[in-house]
Fold:
Amino acid sequence: RSSDLLIQYHSSGATFLKPEILAEGEWQKWYRQDLISSVGFYSISLTLLVFFMLFGVVAAERQVVLYGCLFLFGLLWVSSQDGIGFQVLWPDFPRWNHWASYVLLYCFAACNFVVAFMSYGKKNVFSGLLLWGGISTVLSGFAVMVLPFSLMANLGALWLLLGVVGQMAIFVGWFNGINRPGRFAVGTLVALGGVLVLLLTVNLAGVSLPDFAHQYSVHLAYCVCSLASMLLILNHVLQMRKQREAALQQALLAAQEEASLNKALAQAEQNYQRVSHLANQHQMQLATASHDIRQP
Structure:
């Protein structure tokens, strides 16, 4: 005997997974797999972030600390996407969880613009665009309670993509300041750009991906972008340190040459004073002898 069951499904809040009806055993298996993958993802991400920020603090590099805070904020947004934030961080605030993914998305996109603006360090048209991009992202985020969820999600993803493109422009600008950028750094930048182009193409073309890819696409994008950005930032910091050490070495050599020249000049001055003193003594002796000869 068979019967039809009609279920009406209405999602409230952010979701990117289709609903499924599972048996209790299958659900328990899926839950354990998801829990294991979440523990692995967040433990590895937090460990990398801690070491990355500790390096910035010990090396006194402000850019490393800023980007570490940016990646930590991005990890918070990812936790709001996969439900870990509601399970662990704010379980007693379901209404906040309703808006958390959108609010954090816009905040994360705005932080991309702000960190890129602070890392650029030059006042021109591009730095102004970065600043206005951050301000516009924050202002457009206030419309999250008025406009439809789908429109706000697409708009937030667009702002986030523009912010990441701004970050890549910063990375390219760093390479322009290096005489010979390493192949590893250039390859990492190319790989990062390829991943972003692939994600953008898949989203715009509406390519249907397996459920596993949909479920962990945010985690994969975060891992690739954050790890590649960390490698690029560390490469930039090390290159800048090498340049500063080379400049200090050149300044030290110049100071040593100047010191040796000053020492030689002082020695020549002493020699001149000694020779001048001897010449005066000799002249006085000649004058005295001439006077004695002229005496009757």
Q: What stands out?
A: The first helix runs from residue 24 to 58. The helical segments are 24-58, 62-82, 84-89, 94-120, 125-141, 149-176, 183-205, 211-294. The two ends are 160 Å apart (CA to CA).
